[in-house]
Design goal:
The complex is a heterodimer of chains A (405) and B (695). Chain A contains eleven helices and twelve strands. Chain A has 405 residues and is of the alpha/beta class. In chain A, strands 3-2-1-4-8-9-12 form a seven-stranded mixed β-sheet. Chain A is elongated, with a radius of gyration of 27 Å. Classes of the chains: A alpha/beta (405), B alpha/beta (695). At the A-B interface, loops of A face helix 15 of B.
């Protein structure tokens, strides 16, 4: 009896140690991913979402739907999957009786690209596009019956692109010709999202008249906003399709699309290059961006961080093996390093920035790895420790059997 | 007055202002009247350029799709119609031919048989819609017309709305221009049966205009808007089935099928009446726009805007609206235009920001158009078949094309331009989401591209009528405050209220007489006198008789001698005129405006024919002369002949013309007729009464 007790006694510290070890490991792993929830500085960018909203109805607002659908195609092409795109279209131009090309929507008079072709998943359509539903999508306060496909299921590691187009004015955006979203409504929704950890970074892109005024109330960190026009300015349509009989695209969106047309998923053009590509004389308005809430420098942020689904990936040779992670930090793949072939202007010329960008993730992730490493050093290879323990158990077992016998 | 009564109590500023105005009533009246007339003359300068107010319309944003092929088809129809003309019996054939062409396009075809309604005086039908019930009373069964209706359904539309194209066609007296108007509409219609972008159905009405363009369209509209069910329908068809039918419409219709098959589409969004006239214009194809409907109602300005915009900027047509041509050569207008131009130049020199003044030629043109616009609105008679649509709140306008030459070779070119214009207008209206509502309904045109909105043209009217209550109040107060000092003190005998009541009674009785006068033509129509002059004579005699009878029965005395009496009567008259004009301005503004121009100076100036010893002889005589002139000018027949003479010259004037004119007013249910007999004439009689006052 006493012996067994002893044996147990001898075993228990080891078991506790092993337990402790595993606990520590899991804790560390958990902490590295979710302890960040408290501050965006340490969160990892894990996924991308896009909310694309066309707020105006009626045939003569054809271009707003075309704008939104064009953006939809772009973000899809750049890698955001359909289930992570919330597409809200306030009217159905494709099936409008006035449409000369039934069930087709074009954003250019050359009619080369039918935006309303296959695989367009409209999540909110027609009269579903209301201020209420829009705010519900942002804040995630849905009624229970709303399916998952209509929800913005983002988390604290999400980068969200919020694109809105329609008719706006000073500090408001008109929805459906009957109600309006005011700048403080938007700011309030964004704040709620922030507090609920629904995004890491949020890019709000608005193509309306006086779009800049819509951002005036925003004050949540991590938000980057860009509007097509300043206060007192109008946003204009780009061109008229005299075949369909309506304007088919807005200037701001047209030049945004022109920028993305030359990019693919692996290009590392920065947001700054996008923003500086807007030419006020072509736009006939001044694009405005609000960066004071955004923590990173625009030169360091690739557009695909919002418009695509490209994020830093961590390569591991074997899954679930924590031991190997030590090496993995050297191998973090930096898609940014890949050079842009086509456009000189878009290439990031400053090598210093390049370096800093490479190092930047090291600062945040590396720290966690270091702490994990330190904790593991206490045990100096836990596996051998366990093996030694087991080997030592053998003579003990032999001694105890010998004593009994 | 006020300081005397309440010397200590301080009155509110508005009251003091009112008292100040009333105490200076003469100055106020003179200033207001003059500025009213000046403001009226300034309207062409204050006119604004028209603009498309409704976003949805987007005129000209789409390229016309109408091709030479459509025009070629239309030309075939034109030639076929011209061939028919040579045949002896063609009236029924025309309907069949057009119907065949329409059904070949794959559109629905229908016929509408109607019995033309003779215009008649319905004293109780003012402001009411034509009633289908009253139709059967006076139809002639042997006289009927047949409208052909083609309907192109919108392939993806919901069928709730429609746009109407109307082509009046008189098969008995048709020529090339009429055939061209059919061809023009046909080419558009044939295109519209093929396009995919229609959201509203297209109804093409080929109106049989043998009995007048208006009556055929209004008959069709009446039947369209008021479906007849069951028994009454059979009764209606029975009434006239016995009548001999001069021709048979092949196998397309029988009488019963005809009514059952009344083709309908949705509610009408707009209507375009298409006509081609022979009167050719030099050098350019011209488009005349007619838009006045009954009682000065106008279609929404947006409709005129899109037609004007597309015609001028897309098809290069010369657009015209009606003008009073004689005004263009009027001396006084030329002088005025030059003065205003100079003023404009000076103003611009003072401050380049002020955009005042327009070139003299433009001013003269604008004034002539404005005068015509005012006149036709005041008349209250629709200027074309589009007027029938306005009765159902459908915006409609008549497009009258006048090609500069109708030579054979130019047909196609003209057809192409004209039908592309119509296509553009229809495509624009097709884009519309609701009824026309954005732009103005109350406006006067000074050119096809310039208008004076209600907010501006109200000003002259308000300035003109504003002195009326001021003067009335001033007269009423003066007589009791200052009257006893100047007069002999008789006023003390008759208390204020009694004098006032007498005057009010007088005014009411005269207005009552006015309403009797307005009903007299109904009786005169029942008796059948031949000449208009005779009718007019009987009308005036009966009116005079009625007046005498009323005076005898109700005991009006003409021999009151006190000053107070006539002053109070004038005060009451002024109030009556004010109320009457304001009421009329709501019904038909243009009538009220012209009426105010005639009545207000008269009512303000009117004074008994007696010599005031306090004033000089010259003043007395000039006042008398002025009274006479104003009074005679304001008498409705005289003002009619004066206006007519000023516009068309004084030769060949017949007294009977006035009767004809009045007859046309009541036949079209114009509110102007009511205004003349129930407001203008009584007020004139009251003024006459004051003038003939003994002392």
């Amino acid at each position: 009896m006493k012996e067994t007790l002893k044996v147990h006694f001898q075993f228990s510290p080891m078991a506790i140690r092993i337990l402790l070890l595993s606990l520590c490991l899991s804790n560390n792993l958990y902490a590295s991913s979710s302890a960040v929830a408290s501050s965006s500085q340490t969160a990892t960018h894990t996924n991308n979402w896009a909310v694309l909203v066309c707020t105006s109805r009626f045939w003569f607002n054809y271009r707003h739907m075309a704008n939104t659908l064009s953006l939809y195609r772009t973000v899809k092409r750049l890698g955001i999957p359909d289930e992570r795109i919330i597409l809200m279209l306030a009217d159905d131009m494709a099936c409008n009786a006035r449409n000369k090309y039934p069930a087709q929507v074009f954003n250019n008079e050359n009619h080369r690209l039918n935006l309303y072709g296959d695989n367009v998943e409209v999540d909110y359509r027609g009269y579903e596009v209301t201020v209420e539903n829009f705010l519900r999508v942002l804040t995630g306060r849905h009624e229970t019956a709303v399916p998952r496909s209509k929800r913005l299921l983002s988390d604290e590691g999400s980068h969200i692109l919020l694109y809105m187009t329609g008719h706006g004015g000073e500090e408001f955006l008109k929805f459906q010709d009957s109600e309006e979203l005011q700048s403080h409504d938007l700011a309030d929704a964004v704040k709620q999202m922030k507090e609920k950890g629904r995004f890491k970074e949020l890019l709000i892109m608005v193509d309306t008249c006086q779009a800049a005024t819509l951002f005036s109330q925003l004050h949540s960190p991590g938000v980057l906003a860009i509007g097509s026009s300043l206060k007192g300015e109008n946003s204009y349509s780009h061109h008229l399709d005299s075949d369909v009989g309506v304007s088919v695209v807005d200037r701001f969106t047209f030049y945004t699309l022109a920028f993305f047309e030359r990019l693919n998923m692996y290009d590392n053009a920065s947001l700054n290059s996008l923003f500086s590509s807007y030419n006020p004389s072509l736009l006939m308005s001044t694009a405005y961006y609000r960066t004071d809430l955004f923590p990173r420098r625009l030169e360091q942020v690739p557009v695909t961080n919002f418009f695509g689904s490209v994020m830093e990936t961590i390569h591991t040779d074997r899954p679930y093996r924590a031991r190997k992670r030590k090496e993995s930090q050297d191998r973090i793949r930096m898609p940014l390093k890949e050079a842009v072939q086509d456009n000189q202007q878009r290439r990031l010329s400053d090598p210093e920035i390049e370096v800093r960008r490479v190092r930047a993730p090291e600062d945040s992730i590396g720290r966690t790895w270091n702490s994990l490493q330190n904790k593991m050093k206490i045990f100096e290879y836990p596996e051998t420790f366990v093996y030694y323990g087991l080997v030592m158990m053998l003579p003990l077992l032999a001694v105890s059997t010998w004593l009994y016998s | 007055m006020a300081p005397k009564e309440t010397p200590k109590m301080k009155q509110r500023p508005i009251v003091r202002l009112g008292i100040l105005i009333i105490s200076h009533s003469v100055v106020v009246s003179v200033i207001c009247c003059i500025s009213g007339v000046v403001a009226l003359l300034l309207l062409p300068i204050l006119a604004k350029n028209t603009y498309i107010s409704e976003n949805a319309l987007m005129p000209g944003s789409a390229n016309p799709m109408l091709s030479d092929q459509d025009v070629g088809e239309a030309n075939k129809l034109v030639n076929a119609l011209l061939d028919l003309k040579s045949e002896p019996i063609s009236s029924g054939r025309v309907s069949t031919l057009v119907a065949e062409f329409i059904s070949d396009l794959g559109a629905e075809v229908g016929y509408h048989k109607f019995y033309p309604e003779s215009n008649q005086f319905h004293p109780l039908h003012f402001f009411s819609l034509p009633d289908s019930g009253s139709l059967q009373e006076n139809v002639n069964c042997s006289m009927y017309g047949i409208n052909v209706i083609g309907i192109a359904r919108a392939p993806q539309g919901d069928g709730k709305e429609a746009v109407v194209l109307v082509t009046p066609y008189n098969s008995e007296n048709a020529d090339l221009s009429d055939a061209l108007s059919i061809g023009l509409t046909y080419s558009v219609f044939s295109l519209l049966t093929q396009v995919t972008w229609l959201a509203k159905d297209i109804i093409w009405l080929v109106a049989d205009s043998r009995y007048g363009e208006y009556s055929s369209v209004s008959a069709w509209l009446r039947d369209y808007q008021r479906p007849v069910f069951g028994a009454s329908l059979i009764l209606d068809s029975d009434t006239c089935d016995g009548g001999s039918r001069p021709y048979d419409l092949d196998n397309f219709m029988t009488c019963g099928k005809l009514i059952d098959n009344f083709k309908r589409a949705g509610t009408m969004a707009a209507a375009l009446v298409v006509k081609v006239t022979e009167k050719s214009e030099p050098f350019v194809d011209t488009l005349n726009l007619y838009s006045e409907a009954s009682n000065g109602q106008m279609p929404n300005l947006d409709l005129i805007n899109i037609v004007n915009y597309l015609a001028v900027h897309r098809q290069g047509l010369h657009v015209k609206v009606k003008k009073l041509i004689p005004l263009l050569n009027a001396k006084w207008l030329n002088v005025l235009a030059d003065i205003l131009e100079t003023v404009g130049v000076i103003v611009r020199r003072l401050n380049p920001q002020w955009k005042f003044g327009i070139p003299a030629a433009e001013y003269i043109d604008g004034t002539a158009t404005l005068a015509s616009s005012l006149y036709y609105q005041a008349l209250g008679i629709p200027t074309g078949p589009h007027g029938a649509f306005r009765d159902y709140q459908v915006d409609a306008v008549t497009l009258e094309f006048s090609p500069y030459s109708l030579r054979k070779g130019r047909h196609k070119e003209f057809l192409l331009r004209g039908s592309r214009l119509i296509e553009g207008v229809i495509r624009s209206v097709n884009n519309l989401l609701e009824k026309f509502h954005q732009s103005f309904f109350l406006y006067l045109l000074t050119s096809p591209g310039r208008f004076v909105s209600v907010g501006v043209y109200m000003i002259p009217f308000i300035l003109l009528v504003a002195p009326l209550p001021v003067m009335a109040a001033s007269l009423y107060m003066n007589i009791f405050d200052f009257g006893p000092n100047t007069e002999t003190g008789q006023l003390a005998v008759s208390p204020r209220s009694v004098t006032w009541l007498d005057a009010a009674k007088m005014v009411l009785i005269v207005h009552f007489w006015g309403s009797i006068v307005s009903l007299l033509p109904y009786c005169i129509c029942q008796m059948d006198f031949s000449t208009p002059t005779m009718n007019l004579a009987i009308w005036s005699m009966l009116s005079a008789l009625c007046f005498l009878l009323l005076c005898l029965v109700l005991g009006l005395h003409f021999n009151q001698t006190e000053k107070a009496k006539w002053v109070v009567l004038k005060s009451a008259t002024l109030s009556a005129v004010f109320i009457g004009l304001c009421l009329m301005s709501v019904v038909n503004f243009a009538t009220a405006e012209i009426g105010a121009l005639l009545l207000v100076p008269l009512c303000l100036m009117i004074h008994p024919l007696k010599i005031n010893p306090n004033m000089g002889t010259l003043v007395n005589f000039s006042r008398m002369a002025l009274n006479f002139i104003l009074l005679s000018m304001a008498f409705p027949p005289v003002s009619f002949f004066l206006l007519r003479g000023a516009v068309y010259g004084f030769h060949g004037i017949d007294i009977g013309d006035f009767w004809m004119w009045v007859e046309s007013l009541w036949a079209w249910n114009s509110a102007t007729y009511l205004y003349i007999t129930m407001i203008h004439l009584p007020c004139w009689v009251l003024c006459l009464h004051i003038l003939l006052h003994a002392r």
